[in-house]
Design goal:
Blueprint: H1 2-24, H2 31-46, H3 69-83, E1 86-87, E2 101-102, H4 104-113, H5 119-129, H6 150-160, E3 162-163, H7 173-176, E4 184-187, E5 193-201, E6 207-213, E7 216-221, H8 223-226, E8 231-236
Parallel strand pairs: 1-2
Antiparallel strand pairs: 3-8, 4-5, 4-8, 5-6, 6-7
Helix pairs in contact: 1-2, 3-4
Length: 239
């Protein structure tokens, strides 16, 4: 027990030193700063009490399979995580990557497809009719790739989906009620990334995210990810 206490104290000293260096010496937003944020949060997380956040997603079942559409989306995305779909960024004739490989945007369209929502068809049509709204197309629509670009998805969701809060407050039930299964979360601040909000939550009530980043698709806690990726978009299909 004494050895464990000594290790804990030493760990706290090291973390404190890193926090001071990160805060007063290194420029804000550096890698060390991000790492310290993650470590300090994870240590505090160990001692947190579990927060219960009610489920308030719609029970709409447009595809009549007996499962609410938001859960269909989660289940479709979760298959990617279960299969550990390899992260491979390639161009495919026909647009769709083969089963077993893809990128973050593929988790989104595959999740939506499980609720019979054809994102590719909808985006291709809107891009064709409103090409100037989608800068990543460079003025030349390409159905083989346009729907798989994060920026294009973000623009489409802003146009047609519910736009929700990007503020995420662990432990705040009122805030966390705004984050429900099947929602889509986008990160554009430092890197382009997108994922599906899970129906699973951590002890602080924060939902898990289902996404694909190297080496493969997975379902994991959202909070550590936000230590170095800023949420810039939060959307919900208009059921």
């Amino acid at each position: 027990m004494k050895k464990l206490l000594k290790v804990f104290i030493m760990l706290m000293v090291v973390i404190t030193a890193l926090v001071l260096i990160s805060k007063y010496i290194l420029p804000k937003g550096n890698i060390l700063d991000q790492g310290v944020n993650i470590v300090t949060h994870e240590i505090g997380y160990i001692f947190k009490k579990r927060i219960i956040v009610p489920s308030e997603y719609t029970l709409t079942d447009n595809n009549n399979n007996g499962i609410p559409d938001p859960i269909d989306i989660v289940n479709g995305a979760r298959e990617e995580a279960k299969n550990k779909t390899d992260y491979k960024s390639n161009y495919y004739s026909g647009g769709y990557p083969p089963e077993g490989e893809g990128v973050c945007t593929d988790v989104v369209w595959r999740g939506l497809m499980a609720a019979d929502i054809n994102l590719k068809k909808q985006m291709d049509e809107d891009i064709y009719n409103n090409i100037n709204l989608y800068p990543r197309t460079v003025g030349n629509p390409d159905p083989n790739i346009d729907f798989r670009r994060v920026v294009n998805q973000d623009i489409f969701f802003k146009r047609f989906y519910e736009i929700l809060s990007t503020e995420l407050i662990p432990g705040d039930v009122e805030n966390l009620l705004k984050w429900q299964p099947g929602d889509i979360v986008v990160f554009l601040d430092s890197t382009e990334h997108v994922g599906i909000i899970s129906d699973k939550r951590d002890k602080e009530g924060v939902p898990y995210i289902i996404h694909n980043s190297p080496p493969h698709a997975r379902e994991e806690r959202l909070t550590p990810l936000t230590a170095y990726k800023k949420i810039t978009g939060h959307y919900r299909f208009r059921y």
